């Protein structure tokens, strides 16, 4: 563990003190510290000597681990910068996140474990999505949470045919369809009525959004499969596909999205003594024993 | 019962024979027959003498009752043409509709009841929706089914504050919010997880679409109330309001939609011997006793 | 307002001081104070002079209003004692209740309003349920929340036919069926997936519990109707009907339960400034604006 | 493939002809045919020579494959008789079953594939459940569908603590809790709101039945885990555990059920050309492309 990157949510208030303190803590232990430009800007020039400022991609290429300060959205974005499965330590500000589960008081204890190699982590597998028109690949993405094919506001409904490994599953008439990883199962999938899927399970969830067919239900399948979502009909502007909630690429009739297991994983550092179910209980307010 | 209008789905195939037969049946009983232009066009000029062709609005103003040939969408559109609560007889082609419940074999028997004044009907109350920005009324509509405030495809979520008669209900972070009449309760509301509400109940249903707060549930209130849905934040193009699934008017931050009971009703003619629950059972495939 | 009754949850700890204080407060304003025997026992004989101890039914017959100390269960039980629609003031200990919404700090302010006649209240209509075998009336009850027909643990499923005002609705194969009032809509009905129904709406909710038919949905109807639930088949010990969660009366094949609007109402005293939706938001943890 | 057993639903009407025909078909191909006593009784003594009649357990021990005539319940029962993972061919009478997917017209074609070794099959893994009080093992079962801990009719609710591999998941206050295999996911689990889980996925589903906590959701975990369900409180007669919907063993306070992956599998013979999703579509009436 030679180099550690720091990425913070760009609008994080009063972060200068923490950033300096964190950088000093790492530097004093002989660690090379890389900060994303915007994160460094938050520190108001008060960083210890020897800290490197660089673009997100440079940071991602240089470091052996990443500390993210912010919420799940920041971690989602920052984890994309990494070129290898380096450990990511997500520190939440405000509310506990599903991904940013480490609190400020736990930060240095967790970092110590990281440097000493005694930390625990959870590997979260990404999904790979490709949008094709005929033979042309129009868009591709690696997602941690989900691939969503959904109607535009003015469209009434989408109609898609779904198949798994080339075997037809069903047609869906709905507001949309979510293909979610276990990690994404607690995000949009949960709001749409899908189940919680433990992140250690090699699975994907297919969850229709407000399906017209009342007997359509979320479907959990193994992630070694290839899911294909094909539009039955769509006029310009009616349907979009989005990756981890980002942007949205228009789809036209006969366009199809395939989703498979990605080669990439996110290695999420756990706080000492905290387990997956504790995060669930806190986030979903299940109460304690 | 002097004048009866006929409105058919514009793409209804092989309708010429039926239209001519229906018009003759009515003419032979001394009824003035009005056809919407597009409906008349379906008849291929083979209409009996004395039939009137006119715009939809003229038909709506002239007639004492309306026969609709098509599906629920056609009936929804045609019923807007009426200026008074005239009986509407919906004949379904293909599948039974929630509104177009009369089958072709039942048509003349039901019409006979209509002419003789012995028919049964269900009154379906409409809702009135008004979209305002400050004091300015930007759009208004009378809806039979629902008013839907929803995100555009590229937006991640909407945030609205809902109040009832000026009393704050809750903030909702969701894909959207449906304010549905009892009639609309079996449309989009059902897909979004809302309950079935009997059309004789003076009620509205507020159903969030994929709410992030898992404890948000559909809420049924009396229709004497005024529901207000106010945007908390929205950028251009993020949120739309639609009326009975039609079009969609963009909403901006601080815009608000109010929904109240309309003065208008739709008087739906029932087939002899068919009741509301039979339609439900058939449409939702509940099976028989 | 001459006489006020006090009923406390029998296991309420450390209630002696509060009971004496409350009784003195009322006595000093010239109010006759009636305590249920078990409640008086909680006061350890330290009650002010002139307080009456009596059975619950005597208390219910004598008083013009009732103060209930405990939770929703205590209020449900205490409200049964009343012979007329006297106001009931529910004070919660521990967590806010849907019915016991008044906190200790609000108690005397609310009582003052009650004595001065300036209080606000919500009328909650009860339902009346009758269980019949042939012409024989085997059980009858007035319920505030719900009538539940459910399987015994060892039964796999129940099969019932439901009709409304003599019109067949559907057969249900399920774990059970809940007929709920608006007040009961936030109790068992909510757990079973039913909607929230505003207490001012004259309605009932029919909610199947884990129905095998996936298209069965909660159904909201007007409370002027008579709901009949008839067993299709049942062996001894398979099916029970319960009233407000109390006890459970066995049902056999061909037994039927009818549910109608009761003549009785519960007049629930509101805390000054608290409305129905605030209670909902707090109980369901919807968060604040 | 030397010996094939036949087990029919005991009340199967007009089965004599089919049983004789089936037995002759198998005998003429040199197969030893074993019939369960009750099945043989259905054949009215008209069986070809050389057929063996025996108890279910003897049949299960002797055969290399099993033909089941009936529905899913019959197959569930019959599959318990097998001592090894022999192929089971389920022929449905009346409606298609999730397990008995083969129709009569497909029977001999499928059998031919079975004899020639060219058939396709799906392996369905069973779950193993053990009920313990302290160190004492009070009941144990291998289930194909589910283990259900549920309240008795007169109980209001159960309270259980669930842990996975010794890690606390949550307390549940509910009507009950289902631990389901992928095969069972389309049975009771589906009625209780759980997801469909593909049978090839090595998973279990934990689905609370009508949970009071509205944020409780079905949870899918890997089947290498040990699930423990422990009662928090229960009085005599309040809670039962049942295995594949059979019987029901009373549970008392501190009793606990553990569920793990069983060593046993059910090898289900597929009809030529029929896949898992086709069965789903038909059973859940999803309609065709």
Rg of chain A (C-alpha, Å): 20 Å
Largest sheet of chain A: 11 strands, mixed
Quaternary structure state of the chains depicted:
homotetramer
What number of structural domains do the residues of chain A give? Answer: 2
Number of strands of chain A: 18
Explain the overall architecture.
The structure is a homotetramer of 289-residue chains. Chain A is elongated and about 60 Å long. Helices cover 19% and strands 41% of the residues of chain A. With 289 residues, chain A is of the alpha/beta class. The mean pLDDT of chain A is 93. The first copy, chain A, has 7 helices and 18 strands. Chain A has 2 domains: 3-120 and 270-284, Probable inorganic polyphosphate/atp-NAD kinase, domain 1 (Rossmann fold); 126-264, Sandwich (Tumour Suppressor Smad4). In chain A, the strands form 2 sheets. In chain A, strands 1, 2, 3, 4, 5, 6, 7, 9, 10, 15 and 18 form an 11-stranded mixed beta sheet that branches. A 6-stranded antiparallel beta sheet of chain A has the order 14-13-11-8-16-17, with no helix packed on it. Chains in contact: A-B, A-C, A-D, B-C, B-D, C-D. β14 (219-222) of chain B pairs parallel with β12 of chain C, so a sheet runs across the interface.
């Amino acid at each position: 563990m030679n180099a550690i990157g720091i990425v913070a949510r760009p609008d994080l208030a009063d972060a200068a003190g923490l950033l300096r303190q964190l950088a000093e803590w790492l530097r004093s232990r002989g660690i090379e510290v890389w900060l994303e430009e915007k994160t460094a800007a938050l520190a108001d020039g008060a960083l210890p000597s020897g800290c490197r400022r660089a673009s997100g991609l440079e940071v991602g290429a240089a470091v052996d681990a990443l500390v993210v300060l912010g919420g799940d959205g920041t971690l989602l974005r920052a984890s994309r910068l990494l070129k290898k499965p380096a450990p990511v330590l997500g520190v939440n500000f405000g509310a506990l996140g599903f991904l940013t589960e480490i609190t400020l008081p736990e930060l240095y204890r967790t970092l110590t474990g990281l440097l000493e190699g005694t930390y625990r982590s959870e590997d979260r597998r990404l999904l790979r999505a490709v949008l094709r028109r005929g033979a042309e690949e129009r868009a591709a993405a690696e997602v941690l949470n989900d691939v969503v094919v959904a109607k535009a506001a003015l469209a009434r409904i989408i109609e898609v045919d779904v198949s798994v490994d080339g075997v037809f599953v069903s047609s869906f008439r709905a507001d949309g369809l979510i293909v979610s990883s276990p990690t994404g199962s607690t995000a949009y999938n949960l709001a749409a009525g899908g189940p919680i899927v433990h992140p250690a399970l090699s699975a994907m969830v297919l969850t229709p959004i407000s399906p017209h067919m009342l007997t359509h239900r979320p479907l959990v399948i193994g992630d070694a499969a290839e899911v294909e979502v094909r539009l039955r009909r769509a006029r310009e502007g009616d349907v979009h596909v989005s990756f981890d909630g980002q942007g949205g690429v228009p789809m036209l009739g006969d366009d199809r999205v395939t989703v498979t297991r990605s080669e990439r994983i996110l290695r999420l550092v756990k706080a000492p003594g905290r387990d997956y179910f504790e995060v669930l209980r806190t986030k979903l307010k299940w109460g304690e024993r």
